Please model this.
Amino acid sequence: MKVAFHTLGCKVNQYETEAMREQFAAAGFEPVDEKAFADVYIINTCTVTNLADRKSRQYIRRMKKKNPDAIIAVTGCYAQISPDELAGLPEVDIVAGTGEKGNILDYVTEALRLGGNSRTAQVHIKSRKQLCEYQDRGIITSMESRTRAYIKIQEGCDRFCTYCLIPFARGQVRSRNPREVIAEAEALIGKGFKELILTGINTALYGSEEDFAEKYPDFRPELSGVEKILAEIEELSGDFRIRLSSLEPTVVDGDYAQGLMKYSRLCHHLHLSAQSGSDHVLRLMNRPYTRNDYLDIVRRLRDSDPNYGITTDMIAGFPQETPEDFADSLKLMEEAEFGRVHVFPYSKRPGTTAASMDGQIPPQIKAERAAELIRKADETAARFLAGCIGEKRTVLFEEEEGGFFTGYTDNYIKVYVPAFGAAGLLNSFKEVRLLEIYKDGMKGEI
Ligand code: SF4
Model:
């Protein structure tokens, strides 16, 4: 039986797809490429914007056309938030919410036993209240890359930013058992992975639930948040580095971020979602920091390393965003000199507080503001890269493309080194001098 997986959205979804893939393979299914003909298609969806929902529906239709007899199982955040919408699509056989990913194998097996696809979709959803225990899926070590591996350490969010559906889609904050995390890190290092990326829905909330200290009393009680697990992984032996997939300024401040500089294996790069540079809009978003708090984190990190890489997300056209608020966002981008920015025009998500706010911005203005943010992002990224010319940074080489070996610096710049005469670079660390801006990164020499 052939099974294909398609993932939309964040790194946590990618990790969870790997977990499902391993589970299906262990049960005797043959995982195939997502574009191949398969008997079962598993679609792991995202619902962060309307566009993400639309992409999931398009993919579902495309796969059903490829094989009209295939079982189509849809899981992920879109399935959790809009199960009826998905169950109403004639192509869909199984809808399983975020707390049901571990059970999809059983649901698919049952559907196959009953003779394949049916007219009515089976729906399996747990409520937010039921999404309260971390569901461990065992040790996951088969990543798409041979070099970088994700480790999921945490699930859920309790911040309720007014535009965001994630706390509803992912449930309460719960941390993975630290011993499981360490066992997975050791297994990945043993398999030769050189970069471990700690990921979660709101990674900064690791260990923050009330009963964490009760469950794991000996586990670094003197440390808080993600440091609890970072300190342990830092001490493992092997040739590897650590990256945090993101930290939320809704949780961490400048002191905390500066404290992370003591971990020598930790890359000098943080994805810190700003979302807006205006205090007025941040208040409307229910994000409890100001632009100054945000810039304080940036300053503290760059005091230690002037080319510390910071990437971010920005929303254009949040309800009631004035031209002055928007100008503050552009200014923040100037000041923070981001290495990369993901820009989203504000997307109204039903059920969130922001969806029913007065002062919704017309689509045309949202699009214009998003385009301007993208222009500014290109400009600041070019300035950030120009500031790195002549610097030596550690690159982990991952691929060979178009006559170059490519990899990322610790501060998250893609580096291109001519492949000629540079044999044996893949999956190794090298000190590289950065020479000039090239494509989406920089050219370098070893
Ligand atoms: Fe959503 Fe805010 Fe939680 Fe991030 S911190 S997942 S934006 S609610």
